[in-house]
């Protein structure tokens, strides 16, 4: 043991409190957990039920590898160890050493030789330096049970530490934006990936929170038209030892260790205290622009892995409470996440940690919502995923957490983990069925047009019976995990060789289609088809009921060269490229106009599901499904899995919707025509020729919006192979009463005057 350490803990055996050289020790308080600083000093509090003693180790800011003080936390109240150090300045590094029983077979892993990061640390210091000391057992052994032996090498010089910080900040009146869910358009992005190559941001600031709050980046997001940015993990996470050795980096960040600290690599500032302020400034600037901030949070597991993993924090503080252990084999971990461990949400203290973290990010960091990675793992009871889980119940009764946007990734890798449609009210979900059904339909798979109709109309089959609304469905074609939209139509197979796993990683079932050639080609017909397919998917996404989520870069056709699992590609493979070709600029303009059309027309983002029936004793329906021959879809059409063409009439005049003042919302009448068939299909335009004219707004065979073409009812419209079209009904003078109303409604024209069309 180094003689430079002031072992206050030894002197405390005579006098527990008082002045010990240059430092003073008081009992402190068990709440709040973590390191809570004020001008009077800092209170340290950490939970551990099984530890028999807890030490606080302190390190100076300018020499974080050298332990200066080791102080015994003499008080334990309600299983929380606590101590107060008066007059301590911000910037000090700290960690804990937990004493207790070493009995891996019983899940007890107390090893005071390992410095442990505070799960409640609000700022973190230098990165881990990987080596044998970071593991609680001797890693050089080759026997399977080598993890049962204690490794007594001190990890403190190599371990990342918590940092004492001042969290005060002038928000200048900033508040959460609280955009209604049905009006929300989400942009899934990465702090570094979006800004690393942005030419308008100073080079030293690129890839950071400061860059994301830069006026040029904010203007881009506003101009695109999105209302919320969903950031991939920004909780402090660990760079995996395996990736570091391969010369790679964990880019996605699904490897959390501390749930209150922003990841320091994404900060332009050097000091942890300034990094926290930088994050807050970013949020404040985004809010000024009307953009909500949603965080992708990873509470289902940590970077400590399984029984062969390192000891970094919770594993050493209280393994039995923080992690799910195999019953009757507590040396092993239940792995519902595919990462080696699963945080135990049935443990009150683990649950408290997650809730405290969520409240902190809402109240202290002003974020507007959360997307919960592998949320099914959080909602598990003893075994199964359940709507009545403690995790869900606690969130629902919390007056702060329950009022922000809550989005579940509704699956994990355990049995019964696929829970799309299974979460309760208040929750929205990444709708995996939307992604799969839309991709399959457009590729030509025999899924049945009924599945597509459900997805277009808000997935009422998944959400309506549980009392939820279309906003429960987060619709997405692509996400960070998988092909980009451009790659979805450039590759049949994944190409993940750069990840160093012999292309064995990543999803094999992508519903992708290379349009005839694998990868880049100079064939103009194939490239034109690929662009058309991208436009088809973008149109589908933005005219569907629910909440659209656009993945960073899909608006211009970003490629990852066929890599569908770029989790370790912190480079140009993953980063947003701001240098666009003319073709990419056209796709971006197309996407921006699509978003504007959606925002301008409430029929595309209804708060409630369609009724599909008469409203207010009228003869009108709010939605009508039409065959290519112009007639209504029948039962046989819905059950025919070979049907590849469909018309969807959206009746904005009969929306059962009201604004915040209780005023009835009305909109235009739109006709959406989808043709996923590989040949041209002629659609008879619904209505009566003397009354009805359709204005062509969108045609996926071109990047122009609007198309500015009028189509008469009763005539045939040639829908090109694999194309999508949107029309708006124009009122003709012959069908107008004196006060501007229609003499004959469009639904009546389709239903009652079909015979006239036939004649």
Automatic annotation (TrEMBL):
<dbReference type="InterPro" id="IPR014756">
    <property type="entry name" value="Ig_E-set"/>
</dbReference>
<comment type="similarity">
    <text>Belongs to the glycosyl hydrolase 13 family.</text>
</comment>
<dbReference type="InterPro" id="IPR011837">
    <property type="entry name" value="Glycogen_debranch_GlgX"/>
</dbReference>
<dbReference type="InterPro" id="IPR044505">
    <property type="entry name" value="GlgX_Isoamylase_N_E_set"/>
</dbReference>
<protein>
    <submittedName>
        <fullName>Glycogen operon protein</fullName>
        <ecNumber>3.2.1.-</ecNumber>
    </submittedName>
</protein>
<dbReference type="InterPro" id="IPR004193">
    <property type="entry name" value="Glyco_hydro_13_N"/>
</dbReference>
<keyword id="KW-0378">Hydrolase</keyword>
<feature type="domain" description="Glycosyl hydrolase family 13 catalytic">
    <location>
        <begin position="196"/>
        <end position="598"/>
    </location>
</feature>
<keyword id="KW-0326">Glycosidase</keyword>
<dbReference type="Pfam" id="PF00128">
    <property type="entry name" value="Alpha-amylase"/>
</dbReference>
<dbReference type="InterPro" id="IPR013783">
    <property type="entry name" value="Ig-like_fold"/>
</dbReference>
<dbReference type="Pfam" id="PF02922">
    <property type="entry name" value="CBM_48"/>
</dbReference>
<dbReference type="InterPro" id="IPR017853">
    <property type="entry name" value="GH"/>
</dbReference>
<dbReference type="InterPro" id="IPR006047">
    <property type="entry name" value="GH13_cat_dom"/>
</dbReference>
<dbReference type="InterPro" id="IPR013780">
    <property type="entry name" value="Glyco_hydro_b"/>
</dbReference>
<dbReference type="GO" id="GO:0016798">
    <property type="term" value="F:hydrolase activity, acting on glycosyl bonds"/>
</dbReference>
């Amino acid at each position: 043991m180094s003689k430079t350490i002031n072992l206050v803990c030894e002197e405390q055996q005579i006098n527990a409190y008082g002045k010990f050289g240059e430092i003073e020790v008081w009992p402190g308080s068990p709440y709040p957990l973590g390191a809570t600083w004020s001008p009077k000093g800092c209170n340290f509090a950490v939970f551990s039920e099984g530890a028999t003693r807890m030490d606080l180790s302190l390190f100076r800011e300018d020499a974080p590898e050298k332990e200066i003080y080791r102080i015994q936390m003499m008080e334990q109240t309600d299983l929380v160890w606590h101590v107060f150090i008066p007059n301590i300045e911000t910037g000090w590094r700290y960690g804990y050493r937990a004493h207790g029983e070493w009995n891996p077979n019983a899940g007890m892993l107390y090893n005071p030789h390992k410095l442990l990061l505070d799960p409640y640390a609000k700022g973190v210091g230098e990165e881990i330096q990987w080596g044998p000391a970071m593991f609680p057992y001797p890693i050089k052994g080759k026997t399977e049970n080598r993890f049962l032996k204690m490794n007594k090498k001190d990890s403190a010089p190599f371990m990342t530490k918590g940092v004492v910080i001042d969290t005060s900040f002038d928000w200048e009146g900033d508040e959460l934006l609280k955009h209604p869910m049905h009006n929300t358009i989400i942009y899934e992005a990465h702090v570094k990936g979006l800004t690393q190559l942005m030419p308008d941001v100073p080079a030293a600031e690129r890839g950071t929170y400061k860059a994301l709050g830069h006026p040029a980046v904010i203007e881009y997001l506003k101009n695109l038209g999105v209302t919320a940015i969903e950031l991939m993990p920004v909780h402090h996470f660990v760079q995996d030892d395996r990736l570091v050795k391969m010369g790679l980096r964990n880019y996605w960040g699904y490897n959390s260790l501390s749930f209150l600290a922003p990841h320091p690599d994404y900060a332009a500032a050097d000091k942890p205290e300034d990094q926290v302020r930088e994050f807050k400034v970013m949020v404040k600037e985004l809010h000024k622009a009307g953009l909500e901030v949603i965080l992708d949070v990873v509470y289902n597991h940590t970077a400590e892995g399984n029984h062969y993993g390192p000891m970094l924090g919770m594993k050493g503080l209280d393994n039995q409470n923080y992690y799910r252990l195999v019953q009757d084999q507590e040396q092993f971990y239940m792995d519902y996440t595919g990462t080696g461990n699963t945080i135990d949400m049935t443990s009150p203290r683990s649950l408290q940690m997650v809730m405290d973290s969520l409240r902190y990010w809402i109240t202290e960091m002003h974020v507007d919502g959360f997307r919960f990675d592998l949320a099914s793992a959080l909602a598990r009871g003893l075994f199964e995923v359940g709507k009545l889980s403690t995790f869900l119940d606690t969130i629902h009764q919390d007056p702060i957490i329950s009022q922000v946007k809550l989005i579940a990734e509704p699956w994990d890798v355990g049995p019964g983990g696929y829970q799309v449609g299974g979460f309760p009210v208040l929750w929205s979900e990444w709708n995996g069925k939307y992604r799969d059904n839309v991709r399959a339909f457009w590729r030509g798979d025999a899924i049945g047009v009924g599945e597509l109709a459900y997805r277009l109309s808000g997935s009422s089959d998944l959400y309506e019976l549980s009392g939820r609304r279309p906003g429960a469905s987060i619709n997405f074609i692509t996400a960070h995990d998988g092909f980009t939209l451009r790659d979805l139509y450039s590759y049949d197979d994944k190409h993940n060789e750069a990840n160093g796993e012999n292309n064995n990683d990543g999803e094999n079932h992508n519903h992708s289609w290379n349009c005839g050639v694998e990868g880049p080609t100079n064939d103009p017909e194939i490239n034109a088809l690929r662009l058309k397919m991208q436009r088809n998917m973008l149109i589908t996404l933005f005219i569907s009921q629910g909440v659209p989520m656009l993945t960073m870069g899909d608006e211009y056709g970003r490629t990852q060269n066929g890599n569908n699992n770029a989790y370790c590609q912190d480079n140009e493979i993953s980063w947003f490229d701001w240098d666009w070709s003319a073709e990419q600029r056209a796709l971006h303009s197309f996407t921006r106009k699509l978003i504007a059309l959606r925002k301008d027309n409430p029929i595309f983002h209804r708060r409630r599901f369609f009724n599909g029936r008469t409203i207010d004793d009228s003869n009108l329906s709010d939605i009508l499904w039409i065959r290519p021959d112009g007639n209504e879809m029948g039962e046989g059409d819905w059950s025919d899995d070979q049907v590849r063409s469909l018309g969807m009439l959206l009746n904005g005049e009969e929306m059962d919707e009201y604004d915040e003042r209780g005023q009835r919302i009305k909109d235009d009448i739109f006709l959406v025509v989808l043709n996923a068939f590989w040949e041209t299909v002629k659609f008879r335009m619904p209505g009566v020729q003397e009354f009805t004219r359709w204005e062509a707004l969108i045609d996926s065979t071109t990047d122009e919006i609007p198309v500015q073409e009028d189509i008469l009812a009763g005539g045939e419209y040639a829908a090109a192979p694999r194309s999508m079209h949107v029309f708006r009904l124009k009122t003709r003078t012959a069908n107008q009463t004196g006060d501007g109303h229609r003499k004959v409604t469009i639904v009546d024209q389709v239903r009652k005057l079909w015979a006239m069309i036939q004649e």
